[in-house]
Every structure is written in C-alpha cells, then in structure tokens.
Amino acid sequence: MKILYAIQGTGNGHISRAREIIPVLQQYGEVNLLISGTQADVKLTQPVRHQLHGFSFIFGKKGGVDHFATWKQMNLPRLVKDMRSIPLKDYDLVLNDFEPVTAWACRLKGINSVALSHQASFFSPLVPKATGAGWEKMILKYYAPATRHIGFHFEPYDDFIHTPVIRKAIRELTITNVGHYTVYLPSMDEKHLLPLLHQFADQQWHVFSKHSRQEYMSANVWVRPVHHDQFNTSLASSAGLLTGGGFEGPSEALFLGKKLLVVPMKSQYEQHCNAFALEKMGFPVIWPAQKKWEGIIRSWLAMPAGRCYNFPDETSVVIDKLVSSFAR
User: What are the CA-CA distances from residue 293 to residues 211, 262, 284, 287 (Å)?
Assistant: First the structure.
C-alpha cells in the first residue's frame, strides 16, 4: 500500500502528532509525507517528499492572528499550481491533518481522503462549540475538506473521536514540581507578558517565545526561544502551564497532571471552542475580551495541583481501523 500523509505546518501540534503516527503508518506500506505552511517550530525526523507553500495564518504579537502578514504571504497562483502538482492517483490512501492543498486537490479531483486531525472532531454535533461569527465556522469546515473524518479531542465525544495522541517523549517524562510555571503563548510577544508576570515577583516563570531569538532573564521571568526538548523538561517539572487555546499543549498538560490556564487567540474559532470545552471541564480561561488578567492568574496560582488525565495510547488501534476501513 502507498500512503500520502499531508500535514499542516502552522503551529507545532500537527507535526508533533504526525511524529507519533508516521511510524505506525509505515507498518502498512510506503508512506510519503507532505507539509504545507509555515510557523512550526517542531520538525519531522522523517524525510518529507513534498514541501509546499500552502496557506498559513501568521501569529501576531498581541494575542491574535497578524492579518496583514497572513494576506501578504498568500499566493493563490502558487496554491493552484501546488494542487495540480500532487500525484494523488499514485496513492492508495490519502490522509490529511488539516492540510488545505491536498484536501482541496482531492475534492476537485473526486478522490477520497481521510481527515485525521483535531479539527475533524468538530464535524460532530456533540463536541462543545463556542459562539462565533459565521466566517470563522466556515473556515473550520471548509479549510481542509475530506471524505471521512477521524478526530481527536479532550474527551471522546462521538464514536469517531479519540482522546489526544500524546507524544512518546511526553509519556516517558519524569513528573516533578519544582515550583515554576511554564508559559507558551505563540501569538504574544514576551514584551507584552513581562510587565504582567513581573507583578507576581515571588513566582518563577519560564516563557517560551516564538518572537525571541535569544535566552535571557528579566527579574523573575526566564525567556527562551522555543525548543521542544527544553519545553518538555520545563513543563514536566512545572506547577502548571499558561498557554494558548490550542489542542496538543493543553492535552499534554492534562496528561502530566499540571494546572492549566488557557488564553485563546482573538478571532480564532477553533481555539475558542477548545477553551470552551476546557471551561466545561472546570479549567479557567482568559477570554480575549477580558482586559485584566491579574486577578484570574492570581486565583489560578492559588489553586491546588491538577490531576493526571489517563489518555491511553490508541494510535495503533486508530491506524489499524483506519487502514482496514478506508483504503481504496
């Protein structure tokens, strides 16, 4: 069997999940990898057959998407050219982790594809969903269309939804608590965070910043460029995680039993849905409309330690079911 696995290259979660899925897929045949988009700090360890420009949302520095930078890097002629260049008919199975070029190429050519992603879970009416503008919901629905869906979420809300894929590197960590808090807010420049975190002078913070090229200390805050091994070590020994409304980061914090506080990005419907689901599970959220964070953070710091969520390793079972059910 020949398999094409197309992966979204915006953010770290898609690639982190793919690193766990690829070795399992390779047990069923030849796997060719395709990545489109930018903004990921994590890299695949396996060779990539197709590297495409794609269509990425560019992180801003004030808590949202940088719409101008996103528009500036958009290249529709190249997008169409890339869609035509993918040899889809060479493959027996096309898998898609929210990757738009392959998804739309399959749609236009009438070729079946399987969405294997967190975003696929939102096709269930049982998944918690936040309120949002119609265009935000349309992006989630039509950004990377597929024939079938297999989703991942914090809870198995439906029969095609599974609990998160937790990286082997996270599963093998030694969990401790030396008192600091880990911070990863990719859409926010640390310069906007430092005045806030300085107010909690008796607390140590490890800030991993997409916008910093060097490591430095600022009073009680240690700022570092994003590095996944250093981030793993910091998170495993932390008291908690302050992060965005993504999926993989919060999932790993829940698995490790860390306190969790999430800040969904402005006008990012998927992150608002994730935050809404976490809020229903009892976790605090700082919504974009909230201007004052100090009180929420102070209450969060005073909360007791979290509990470990038992997300079983279902990757092999999921892939086996997928291959047997959807291969054409």
Answer: 21, 11, 12, 9
CA torsion 233→300→254→242, rounded to 10°?
Answer: -50
Using CA atoms, how far residue 5 sits from 37, 45, 49, 152, 323, in Å, is: 15, 14, 10, 17, 12
Distance (Å, whole) CA 317 – CA 303 = 36
| Cβ neighbours for 13, distance < 8 A, ≥ 6 positions apart | 118, 246, 247, 248, 249
Cα 195-59-209 angle, rounded to 5 deg: 45
CA gap 40, 51 in Å, rounded: 13
Q: DSSP letter string over 200-229?
A: -TTS-EEEEETT-SS-EEETTEEEEE--HH
Lowest mean pLDDT among 171-180, 253-262, 266-275: 266-275
Residue 202: per-residue pLDDT: 94
| Ramachandran angles phi, psi of 5, nearest 5° | -115, 110
Closest CA to 238 of 262, 259, 217, 254: 259
- For residue 184, the surrounding DSSP H or E stretch is strand 181-184
List the strands of the sheet with 114-117, edge to edge: 50-52, 30-36, 2-8, 93-97, 114-117, 148-152, 161-162
Task: Encode pLDDT of 68-92 as tens digits.
Answer: 455 455 656 777 788 888 999 999 9
Whole-angstrom Cα distance, residue 110 to residue 113?
A: 9
Q: How many CB atoms lie within 10 A of CB 202?
A: 6
**Site of tokens 């060097």:** 214
CA angle 230/236/237 to nearest 5° reads: 95
Query: Does 187 have pLDDT greater than 70?
Result: yes
Res 230: pLDDT: 94
CA nearest to 255, candidates 315, 195, 325, 165: 165
Using left for φ > 0, alpha for ψ between -120 and 50, and beta otherwise, residue 280 falls in alpha
Residue 179 CB contacts under 8 Å (≥ 6 apart), including other chains: 204, 239
Least Cα distance to 175 among 241, 231, 238, 261 occurs for 238
pLDDT (tens digit per residue) in 274-283: 999 999 999 9
